[in-house]
C-alpha cells in the first residue's frame, strides 16, 4: 500500500512533464549543448561568438531589454575579466574567462572589453543640459540598445510583425536553445508574401526572413567555421546564457548542497536508528 | 492538552517565567512530552514538511516582496531583476516558485494519508475541516501568487479563473468586476492580488495553529486507527517523533533542492516567460500542475444539466469536489478508521487515487484529444460523371412548407430520371434545384484518423475527380470517440461516486478485518515474532 | 537533543551514540547557518545598483562664484566654481588648525591621480555628521558651507571647521574629460 502511494506520487510528478509537451511543428533537433547535463557549464567561447552574432545580426530588430552591457562582464558572464598571476614570471596578467585555477575576478567597472562593447552602441538619452533627446556612446550600466523606441515603431518597421524581446527567449519557448538553433537553420527558402517557411515554427510560416547566411559575421578565430549552423549554435548558446545567467553558479551550488544533504540525511538516519533502538514500532 | 503537564521548571528564571507566561510549559507539553503513538509510519512526517514549507514560503516571500514591484509595467522586469541582479535573488526566487509545488506535493500526500487512515473520523472532524480550510487557502494563495510575475500564463490564468466566478447566477458578473476592480485583469487586480498574496500566508499560519491545537486535543491518529489506550501505546514526541520527522524532512529537502538547483523551471510553464499581453491569448492555458485535477473536473462538464448550463455545472462540480471533503466525516459511515482493516474499501481507495492522477493528467491535455476510437472517421462520396446537368428555380408557397416542397421537387426530378439532385437555398422560400441526368454514378469511401484528416481526404478525393463531376454528395460518419473529456468525465464520476456512494454504503455493508485492540499489541507481537 | 529512553545499552554504545548525535547536530547547525547567508546578502545593493552610471557635468554652464548640485549614484554632489577669493581662503587655511587636516590641493586631486584645478571643487554633498545637505552661505564664519541640521561649518574647501561633524566633506571621484567637462564616478 505504502509503496503504491509512493509510486503514485512519483507518477504525479511525471505527468506534469507529459502535460506540457504539446507541439505541432517539427520537433527541434537535439543538439548536445555543453550546458545540457546537470553539471554542464557554458562553452564561453561559443557564448562570446553568440553575442557577436546577436550584436551584428539579431540586434538590428530584436531588443534584450532585461540585459545590460555590464551583465556581459559580471561573474558568470562571457566577458568576465580575471587577474591571473603567471607562475614563472610572477607577473599579473588579465584574462577573459575564468582560469583553471586561481585568478581574482575584476569588477566589471574596470573591464575594458565590456566598456568597449558598451561604447560601440549608440544610446538615445536625455541630454542633461538641454533636456532634449540626444545620442551618446553607451555605458556599461546601459541596457542593451533597443532597436526601436516602442512596439508600434517596431511593428511599423517590420511589416506589422513584432520582433520579440530575446532576454528570456530560451525559457519562453518549448525546446529552449534547441528550438532557437533549429529555427535559425530551418528555413526552406519558400516565401509567401511576407512570410517565410520554416519547418520548426508552429504553423510553418513566420514573418522573420532567414537572418543568417554563410560568412555574414566574421569570427576572430579562424578555426571556427563561419556557417549558418555554427552561427545558429553560437547564438543559441548566447541566448541560453542570457536567459539563465546564473546557471553555472546554480549547478555548482546545487552539487555542494546535495552532497551536504546526503551526508546529513545519513547522519540523521543513524541518529534516528539510535533513538529508536530498543523501542518497538 | 491531554493529561497533566509533566513540565518541571528547573532554574529560578524558568520558574519565574512559568508563573507569568507558561510558554516553555506549552512547548514542552506540545512538542516534547506529548505522547505520540509508537506505530506512526513515514506518512506521519508530512506535517513537519508542511510546516517547513510554510516557513520557507513566508520567508522567501517576504524577501521577494522587498524587490518586487506590483505594477503592470514593471512586475515582469522586477522579477527579471531579482533573477539577474539581486544577490542570491535567483536562488530565493527559485525556492519560492519550486516551494509552491513542493508545498502542494506534501499537502496532497498528507491529505491522502488522512483519507486512507480515516484521520477525519470522530473525534478529529474539526481537525480535518481545519485542514480543508488550510488547503483552500493554499489554493487561493497559490493562484494569487502565480499572477504576480505578470507573464502570459499569469494574466490569462487570472482572466480564466475570475471568469469562472462570472458563472454564478445573478451576482456573478458583479462579483467578477468586484474581484478584478474593473472590467478586466489590470493594475487594480495586480495590486490587490499582491496585497492578498502577502496576507493569506499569515492567515494560513493562524489556521495551522488551530489545526495543531485540534490535533493535540484529539491526539494523533495512527496506522492502526485504534485509540491510544495506555502509556505502552505511545512514546514521547521528543526525541522519537522529532528525529524521525527531521530525517524525513531532510529527504524532502533533497527532492526540493534537486528541483531548485537543477530544474527550477520544470514545474512551471514556458509561456510565463512571455510578458503579459492582453491582446493575445496563449495557444493553451493550463494552471499549475497542482490545480490540474480541478481544471479537469471544470472541463468535464461539457453538457447542460436541466436549467444549469455547462459552464455553471463545471464550476459547481469543481467547488463540490472540495466541498465534499468538508462533510466527509459524516458521509463515511464505517466505524473502522484505518483502511488497513477494510479490504474492500482499500481497493476502491486505490482506484480513487488513480482517478485523481488521471484527472491531473486530463487537466493538462487538450480536452478534444482523441485517446481511442473503434474506427477511423470515414465519408462516402457519391458523384456522377458525364450526363446532362439541368437547373431550375422554384419557390415554395410559404416558409413553413419549404422542406416539404423541396422534397417534392427532388422526387419530381428523380421520377424524370435524374441520377443525383442538389438544392441550393437562396432565401426563405426560393431555391435552385440541379439534377444530373444520365452519366455514370461512382462512389468512394475515404477515411481519416481525425476529423481534420478526413476533411483533407475528402478534399483530395474531390480534386482527383475534378471537374468531371457536377457535384458530390458526401456522407460523413463519425465513430464514437473516447476523448480526454470522456476520460475526465469517468474520473470525475468516480471521484464523486467514491465519496457520495461508496463510502456511505461500504461502511454499512463491508465486513472489516480484525482490528487490533491496542496499538502496542500488534507492534509487540511483531517484535516477538521477529 | 533530549536523551532517548534509557535502555539496556551502555558503555561503548554511549560514546557511539553521543558521536552520532553531535555529528548530526553540528551538521544541521552548519546547514542552517549556510542557508541564512543568502537571505542576509539579498539586502545588499543589487548588481544594477552597484554599477550605477557615471555622471558627466558640463562646467561651462556654471558661472564663477556659483555651484550646481548633480546626482551621482543617487547622492547629491556639489560642483563649485570658486572665486579667486575663495581659492585664496582655502589655500591660506591649509595651515590653520584643522579637525581633519588636509590641504586644498589634496582635495582637488582627480580620480586618476592628476592634480585638479583650483577653480573647480567637486564634493559629495552630505554632511559627515548625519548626512544632511549643507548650504553654501556667503559670509559665513569660514566662508563655505553650513549644515542647517546641527550647525556644522565647512570652509571654502569643504573642510570641517566647527560643529559636530567629524570629517571633511569627502571629494567625489572625478576626472576632466576636456576643458569644460568632467565625469564623476
In short:
The complex is a heterotrimer of chains A (281), B (530) and C (185). With 281 residues, chain A is α+β, with helices and mostly antiparallel strands.
Overview of this protein structure:
The complex is a heterotrimer of chains A (281), B (530) and C (185). Chain A contains 9 helices and 8 strands. Chain A is α+β, with helices and mostly antiparallel strands. In chain A, strands 2-1-3 form a 3-stranded antiparallel beta sheet, with no helix packed on it. In chain A, strands 6-7-8 form a 3-stranded antiparallel beta sheet. In chain A, strands 4-5 form a two-stranded antiparallel ribbon. The radius of gyration of chain A is 24 Å and the shape is globular. In chain A, helix 2 crosses helix 8 and helix 7 packs antiparallel against helix 8. The relative contact order of chain A is 0.16. In chain A, strand 1 and strand 2 form a beta hairpin. Chain B is mostly helical and 530 residues long. Chain B is built from 17 helices and 10 strands. Chain B is elongated. Chain C contains 4 helices and 10 strands, in the order ααβββααβββββββ. Chains A and B meet through helix 1 and helix 9 of A and helix 4, helix 5, helix 10, helix 13 and helix 17 of B.
Strand content of chain B: 5-15%
End-to-end CA span of chain A: 18 Å
Average predicted confidence as pLDDT of chain B: 91
Strand content of chain A: 5-15%
Going across the biggest sheet of chain B, name each strand in turn.
Answer: 8-4-9
The chain-level mean pLDDT of chain A equals 88
Number of helices of chain B: 17
- Rounded to an integer in angstroms, the radius of gyration calculated over CA atoms of chain B is 32 Å
The low-confidence parts of chain A are: 1-23
CATH third-level topology of the largest domain in chain A: Cytochrome Bc1 Complex, Chain D, domain 2
The CATH class of the largest domain in chain A is Mainly Alpha
Amino acid at each position: 500500500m505504502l509503496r503504491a502511494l509512493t509510486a503514485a506520487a512519483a507518477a504525479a510528478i511525471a505527468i506534469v512533464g507529459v502535460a506540457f509537451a504539446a507541439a505541432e511543428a517539427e520537433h527541434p533537433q537535439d543538439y548536445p549543448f555543453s550546458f545540457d547535463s546537470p553539471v554542464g557549464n557554458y562553452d564561453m567561447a561559443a557564448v562570446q561568438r553568440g553575442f557577436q552574432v546577436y550584436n551584428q545580426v539579431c540586434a538590428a530588430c530584436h531588443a534584450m531589454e532585461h540585459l545590460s552591457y555590464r551583465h556581459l562582464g559580471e561573474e558568470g558572464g562571457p566577458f568576465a575579466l580575471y587577474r591571473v598571476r603567471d607562475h614563472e614570471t610572477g607577473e599579473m596578467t588579465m584574462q577573459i574567462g575564468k582560469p583553471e585555477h586561481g585568478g581574482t575576478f575584476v569588477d566589471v567597472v574596470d573591464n575594458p572589453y565590456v566598456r568597449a562593447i558598451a561604447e560601440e552602441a549608440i544610446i538615445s538619452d536625455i541630454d542633461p543640459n538641454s533636456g532634449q533627446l540626444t545620442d551618446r556612446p553607451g555605458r556599461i550600466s546601459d541596457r542593451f540598445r533597443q532597436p526601436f523606441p516602442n512596439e508600434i515603431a517596431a511593428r511599423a518597421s517590420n511589416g506589422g510583425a513584432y520582433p520579440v524581446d530575446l532576454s528570456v527567449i530560451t525559457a519562453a519557448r518549448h525546446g529552449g536553445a534547441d528550438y532557437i538553433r533549429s529555427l535559425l537553420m530551418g528555413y526552406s527558402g519558400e516565401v509567401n508574401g511576407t512570410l517565410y517557411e520554416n519547418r520548426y515554427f508552429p504553423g510553418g510560416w513566420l514573418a522573420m526572413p532567414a537572418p543568417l547566411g554563410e560568412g555574414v559575421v566574421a569570427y576572430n578565430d579562424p578555426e571556427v567555421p563561419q556557417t549558418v549552423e555554427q552561427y545558429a549554435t553560437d547564438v543559441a548558446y548566447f541566448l541560453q546564457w542570457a536567459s539563465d545567467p546564473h546557471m553555472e553558479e546554480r549547478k555548482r551550488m546545487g552539487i555542494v548542497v546535495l552532497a551536504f544533504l546526503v551526508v546529513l540525511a545519513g547522519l540523521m538516519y543513524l541518529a534516528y536508528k539510535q533513538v529508536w533502538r530498543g523501542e518497538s514500532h | 492538552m491531554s493529561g497533566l503537564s509533566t513540565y518541571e521548571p528547573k532554574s529560578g528564571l524558568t520558574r519565574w517565567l512559568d508563573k507569568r507566561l507558561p510558554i516553555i510549559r506549552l512547548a514542552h507539553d506540545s512538542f516534547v512530552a506529548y505522547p505520540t503513538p509508537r506505530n506512526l509510519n513515514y506518512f506521519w512526517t508530512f506535517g513537519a514538511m508542511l510546516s517547513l514549507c510554510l516557513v520557507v514560503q513566508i520567508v522567501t516571500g517576504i524577501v521577494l516582496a522587498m524587490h518586487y514591484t506590483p505594477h503592470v509595467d514593471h512586475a515582469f522586469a522586477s522579477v527579471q531583476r531579482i533573477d539577474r541582479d539581486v544577490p542570491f535573488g535567483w536562488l530565493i526566487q527559485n525556492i519560492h516558485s519550486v516551494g509552491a509545488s513542493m508545498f502542494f506535493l506534501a499537502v496532497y500526500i498528507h491529505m491522502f494519508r488522512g483519507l486512507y487512515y480515516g484521520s477525519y473520523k470522530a473525534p478529529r472532524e474539526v481537525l480535518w475541516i481545519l485542514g480543508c480550510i488550510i488547503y483552500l487557502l493554499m489554493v487561493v494563495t497559490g493562484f494569487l501568487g502565480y499572477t504576480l510575475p505578470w507573464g502570459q500564463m499569469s494574466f490569462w490564468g487570472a482572466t480564466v479563473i475570475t471568469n469562472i466566478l462570472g458563472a454564478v447566477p445573478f451576482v456573478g458578473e458583479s462579483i467578477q468586476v468586484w474581484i478584478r476592480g474593473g472590467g478586466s485583469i489590470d493594475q487594480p487586480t495586480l495590486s490587490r492580488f499582491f496585497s492578498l498574496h502577502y496576507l493569506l500566508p499569515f492567515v494560513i499560519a493562524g489556521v495551522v495553529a488551530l489545526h495543531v491545537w485540534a490535533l493535540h486535543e484529539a491526539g494523533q491518529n495512527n496506522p492502526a486507527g485504534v485509540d491510544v489506550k495506555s502509556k505502552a501505546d505511545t512514546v514521547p514526541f521528543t526525541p522519537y517523533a522529532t528525529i524521525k520527522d527531521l530525517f524525513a524532512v531532510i529527504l524532502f529537502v533533497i527532492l526540493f533542492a534537486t528541483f531548485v538547483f537543477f530544474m527550477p523551471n520544470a514545474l512551471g510553464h514556458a509561456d510565463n516567460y512571455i510578458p503579459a499581453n492582453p491582446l493575445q491569448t496563449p495557444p493553451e492555458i493550463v494552471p499549475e500542475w497542482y490545480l490540474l485535477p480541478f481544471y479537469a473536473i471544470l472541463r468535464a462538464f461539457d453538457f447542460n444539466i436541466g436549467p444549469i448550463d455547462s459552464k455553471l455545472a463545471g464550476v459547481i462540480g469543481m467547488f463540490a469536489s472540495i466541498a465534499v471533503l468538508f462533510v466527509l466525516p459524516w458521509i463515511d459511515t464505517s466505524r473502522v478508521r484505518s483502511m488497513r482493516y477494510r479490504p474492500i474499501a482499500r481497493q476502491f481507495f486505490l482506484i480513487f487515487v488513480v482517478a485523481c492522477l488521471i484527472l491531473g493528467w486530463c487537466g493538462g491535455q487538450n480536452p478534444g484529444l482523441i485517446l481511442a476510437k473503434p474506427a477511423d472517421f470515414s465519408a462516402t462520396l457519391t458523384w456522377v460523371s458525364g450526363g446532362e446537368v439541368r437547373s431550375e428555380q422554384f419557390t415554395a408557397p410559404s416558409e413553413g412548407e419549404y422542406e416539404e416542397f423541396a422534397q417534392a421537387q427532388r422526387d419530381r426530378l428523380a421520377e424524370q430520371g435524374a441520377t443525383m439532385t442538389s438544392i441550393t437555398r437562396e432565401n426563405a422560400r426560393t431555391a435552385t434545384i440541379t439534377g444530373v441526368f444520365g452519366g455514370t454514378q461512382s462512389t468512394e469511401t475515404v477515411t481519416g484518423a481525425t476529423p481534420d484528416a478526413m476533411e483533407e481526404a475528402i478534399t483530395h478525393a474531390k480534386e482527383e475527380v475534378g471537374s468531371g463531376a457536377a457535384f458530390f454528395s458526401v456522407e460523413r460518419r463519425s465513430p464514437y470517440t473516447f476523448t480526454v473529456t470522456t476520460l475526465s468525465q469517468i474520473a470525475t464520476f468516480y471521484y464523486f461516486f467514491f465519496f457520495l456512494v461508496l463510502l456511505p454504503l461500504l461502511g454499512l455493508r463491508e465486513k472489516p478485518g480484525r482490528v487490533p485492540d491496542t496499538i502496542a499489541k500488534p507492534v509487540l507481537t511483531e517484535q516477538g515474532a521477529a | 537533543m533530549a536523551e532517548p529512553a534509557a535502555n539496556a545499552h551502555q558503555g561503548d554504545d554511549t560514546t557511539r551514540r553521543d558521536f552520532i548525535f553531535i555529528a548530526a547536530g553540528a551538521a544541521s547547525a552548519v546547514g542552517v547557518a549556510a542557508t541564512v547567508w543568502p537571505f542576509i546578502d539579498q539586502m545588499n545593493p543589487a548588481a544594477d545598483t552597484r554599477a550605477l552610471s557615471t555622471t558627466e557635468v558640463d562646467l561651462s554652464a556654471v558661472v564663477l562664484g556659483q555651484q550646481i548640485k548633480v546626482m551621482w549614484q543617487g547622492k547629491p554632489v556639489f560642483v563649485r566654481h570658486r572665486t579667486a577669493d575663495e581659492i585664496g581662503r582655502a589655500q591660506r587655511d591649509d595651515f590653520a588648525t584643522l579637525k581633519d587636516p588636509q590641504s586644498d590641493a589634496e582635495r582637488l586631486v582627480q580620480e586618476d591621480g592628476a592634480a585638479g584645478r583650483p577653480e573647480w571643487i567637486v564634493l559629495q554633498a552630505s554632511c559627515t555628521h548625519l548626512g544632511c545637505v549643507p548650504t553654501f552661505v556667503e559670509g559665513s564664519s569660514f566662508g563655505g558651507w553650513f549644515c542647517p541640521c546641527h550647525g556644522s561649518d565647512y570652509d571654502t574647501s569643504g573642510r570641517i571647521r566647527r560643529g559636530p561633524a567629524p570629517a571633511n566633506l569627502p571629494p567625489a571621484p572625478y576626472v576632466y574629460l576636456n576643458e569644460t567637462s568632467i565625469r564623476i564616478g
